[in-house]
Amino acid sequence: MATGVLEEYGTRQRLLNSDRLLAGALIAPAIIYIVALMGVPFVLSIYYSLSDVTTGGTDAPFVGLANFRALVGDPTFQQTLYNTFLLSGMTLLVVLVLGTIQAELLIRSFRGKWLVRFLILLPWTAPVSLSVIGWLWMFDSIFSPIDWSLREAGLLGHPGALLGPATNLYWLGSGGLPMASIILVNVWRILPLGTVIVLAGLNSIPREVEEQALIDGAGYFRRLFQITLPMMLPIFGIAVLFTFVFTFTDMVLVYILTRGGPANSTHVLTTLAFFTGVQGGSLGQGAAVALFMFPVLTALSAIVLLLIRRREV
Question: Whole domain around residue 182: which residue ranges?
Answer without folding.
Answer: 72-310
